[in-house]
Amino acid sequence: xxxxxxxxxxxxxxxxVSQGRVxxxxxxxxxxxxxxxxxxxxxxARAAFEACREGxxxxxxxxxxxxDPVMVDTTRVKRLGIGQHGRKTxxxxxxxxxxxxxxxxLPVAHVLSPHRRALRKQLSVRKGLVxxxxxxxxxxxxxxxxxxxxRLGGCEAEQFHKHxxxxxxxxxxxxxxxxxxxxxxxxxxxxxxxxxxxxxxSAQEPIILNLKTTPGVASVVSAxxxxxxxxxxxxxxAHQLEAYLGLVPLEKTSxxxxxxxxxxxxxxxxxxxxxxxxWTILRKNDPNDPLNLWAQGVLARRGKQVxxxxxxxxxxxxxxxxxxxxxxxxxxxxxxxSARGVERAAQSDALRAAALRRAARKTLRSAKKA
Length: 370
Fold this sequence. Notes:
Elements: E1 2-8, E2 12-18, E3 21-28, H1 35-38, E4 45-50, H2 55-64, E5 68-72, H3 90-103, H4 114-148, H5 160-166, H6 171-202, H7 206-211, H8 219-229, H9 238-244, E6 249-254, E7 256-262, H10 268-284, H11 290-302, H12 304-325, H13 331-369
Parallel strand pairs: 1-4, 4-5
Antiparallel strand pairs: 1-2, 2-3, 6-7
Helix pairs in contact: 4-6, 4-8, 8-10, 9-12, 10-12, 11-12
């Protein structure tokens, strides 16, 4: 099989190697310009390229042409030598990838199944519309506050246009924000339409119904979780998935272990949704929910921000376990697991306190002998 690599930028750089030697290069504007090299009927090739926005399209097209496409994990390409010595061009990147294909040292990225891609696309459309609505609301609030000192009270985003209509505004103020309010009114039905399409897609995924039984996790969060994870078997443990989603702390261990803020690797949209779910659970403050009770303990020790992120991380573990086992949320089981965690933390605190007391006594004896 031939060994090929593509660098997908504004232009596509093609490189083919054989026995460590470059035997063909080409730079084109689009993938179909490589028909002579990769089109149907050409000798089969293992073709590598870095994951990017058009990665799924390139993957499907190469496979349809009879090749073996390999999407490369962009977070680990530096270990292949890409960007070494300050030299990074499309031509060099394609050659480095091609050599990595031949040597078998590629860090391969996961390619989503077709149905999960459809979920991801609908979620992206919804995200764009919701962000547009949030921007319009912020602009309207800012205009009224900056020009006239008017502070509109809080309300649900879906009801904001009605909230503005009931506000005490004069004719000049209403004319100023009228175009923005009209756009806002049009966005509501559009978001509802996308939500309906998302529900139809989710209905084909029975696991989404199971995930929605978890407190704080509604349709959008569960659909996003499924669209990103795709297959729970990709991860051996919940901690691996938590790290994949960037919800574990940065660690610098050189002598003494130091933990920082979370890594924020992986899908930022899913991570933000999980953190929103964490806030929902904390604000609801259900005394019968073991997740909330566990988070309240973290809140008391570390504060709200840490508690919310810790809760988002714990939600990842819960959702992964429900999917892995094909079960629904069981407060009793979660409560039992949380109790074990609290017991371990208490034992750790007790051991630490005992060690500190021993160290203090040892220091005191040394001081007396001196």
